[in-house]
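Design request, tokens follow.
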């Protein structure tokens, strides 16, 4: 276990420090989290608040803010797999825990994915705790496990509502197993439900007072073509398949293909399987089935939805590897896991350093947010010498990324708003915008006769968007001013 701790800390150090030299702005999701987080609301128009609070806390560290935000991503990602391995050690032993943890360290989800700190990353440790305490609550009828289970679900909801993708399938399993279901006659599951309700209540009340906007966002549907909808479905399924193939390969070289396949067959056999087998089937693949059904309800599955699911995948493969074990080849496990870790480092560096040079517009990591922030301050100084009171972005991804990055790099707090709509910024008094004025940012040219907050926007100028590495195509960033009301 000592070497696992060393590997985990080395992974965290590498993927916290390396982006400081390769990335040049926040990724899109982290930039969006910066927009509302500094106002410490209990609910926001899109996601639950825990993610946005963490991005806001990272800004408070000043010169260390980029280090802090990358460390947050790594802590929650690696922490999720560490908790998964902890549960494995208690249920299946140290070797199974080692396999599950190496599967995590040899995946994109402890390497380049946590750079884009988002609610999926923040959910990972809560997913692991919910999975294991759920099993211990069901199987051992432990009041402590039930209470921690209820607490983990409640905190998971504060991170992202998709914790329910895990709760639903294991809840259905609970109701289908008589030995589990009989616990409904005891106070334990009801106490857990009360704990969840108590934890979630402040957020739920805030959502209710704001007409349930984050719930509407989570449950939104889209009128899209069948080609686009099923294309996203296929992309999600492809990501799941690739992850399973890589994990299967690592486990197979550790314990052998034939014993592994025999173990999995036993795990799906009604006469040889255990309740833990079926619990892990539900916890690992139940969330996938829910997402695969989403196109039937006009939802658009996203590839990154799989992020917390990987916790369950690692546990599932570690469990069946342990049951298959004839010879545990720790050297092969370390070599194969290390190989994949090196592949992710090399691929990340090649994409970041060479990608902009071979074509396309600069992507989010290539935006030089410090130079963009200076352009924004210079644009505001054409109107006022004081600090920027408000930044409004033209509503598209580029605009959201720009205003979040600028707000993150400014040395003072500024209210950043996705568009000119009060619904997008419940923390802002729009009458105050008219009194103090605002900087307007757009990626590309301004629309003709643009008006925001019932006021015409005065164009300051358009500039080539600053990047740290060359691209074959450039994009403009435009600045405008909403004048103060006289």
């Amino acid at each position: 276990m000592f070497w696992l701790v060393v590997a985990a800390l080395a992974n965290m150090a590498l993927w916290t420090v390396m982006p400081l030299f390769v990335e040049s702005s926040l990724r899109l999701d982290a930039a969006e989290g910066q927009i509302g987080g500094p106002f410490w609301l209990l609910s926001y128009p899109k996601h639950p608040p825990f993610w946005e609070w963490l991005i806001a806390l990272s800004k408070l560290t000043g010169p260390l803010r980029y280090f802090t935000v990358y460390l947050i991503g790594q802590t929650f990602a690696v922490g999720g797999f560490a908790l998964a391995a902890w549960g494995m050690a208690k249920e299946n032993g140290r070797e199974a825990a080692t396999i599950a943890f190496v599967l995590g360290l040899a995946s994109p989800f402890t390497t380049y994915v946590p750079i884009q700190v988002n609610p999926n990353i923040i959910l990972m440790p809560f997913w692991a705790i919910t999975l294991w305490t759920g099993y211990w609550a069901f199987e051992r009828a432990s009041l402590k496990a039930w209470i921690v289970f209820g607490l983990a679900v409640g905190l998971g909801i504060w991170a992202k509502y998709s914790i329910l993708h895990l709760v639903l399938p294991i809840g259905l399993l609970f109701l289908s197993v008589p030995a589990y279901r009989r616990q409904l006659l005891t106070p334990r599951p009801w106490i857990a439900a009360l704990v969840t309700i108590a934890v979630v209540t402040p957020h739920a009340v805030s959502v209710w007072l704001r007409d349930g906007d984050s719930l509407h966002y989570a449950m939104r549907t889209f009128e899209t073509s069948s080609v686009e909808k099923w294309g996203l479905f296929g992309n999600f399924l492809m990501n799941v398949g690739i992850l399973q193939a890589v994990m299967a390969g690592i486990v197979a070289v550790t314990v052998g293909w034939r014993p592994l396949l025999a173990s999995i067959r036993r795990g799906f056999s009604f006469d040889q399987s255990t309740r833990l087998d079926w619990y892990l089937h539900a916890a690992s693949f139940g969330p996938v089935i829910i997402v695969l059904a989403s196109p039937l309800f006009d939802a658009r599955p996203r590839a990154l939805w799989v992020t917390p699911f990987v916790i369950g995948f690692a546990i599932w493969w570690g469990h069946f590897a342990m049951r298959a074990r004839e010879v545990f080849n720790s050297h092969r496990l370390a070599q194969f896991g290390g190989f994949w870790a090196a592949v992710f480092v090399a691929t990340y560096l090649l994409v970041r350093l060479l990608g902009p040079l071979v074509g396309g517009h600069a992507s989010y990591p290539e935006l030089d947010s410090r130079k963009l922030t200076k352009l924004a301050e210079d644009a505001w100084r054409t109107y006022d010498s004081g600090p920027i009171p408000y930044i409004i972005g033209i509503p598209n991804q580029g605009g959201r990324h720009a205003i979040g990055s600028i707000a993150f790099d400014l040395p003072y707090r500024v209210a950043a708003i996705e568009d000119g709509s009060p619904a997008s910024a419940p923390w802002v008094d729009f009458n105050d915008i008219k009194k103090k004025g605002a900087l307007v940012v757009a990626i590309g040219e301004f629309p003709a006769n643009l008006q925001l907050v019932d006021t015409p926007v005065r164009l300051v100028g358009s500039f080539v968007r600053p990047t740290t590495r060359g691209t074959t195509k450039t994009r403009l960033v435009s600045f405008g001013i909403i004048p103060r009301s006289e």
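Comment from the thread starter after seeing the answer: thanks! The first helix runs from residue 2 to 22.
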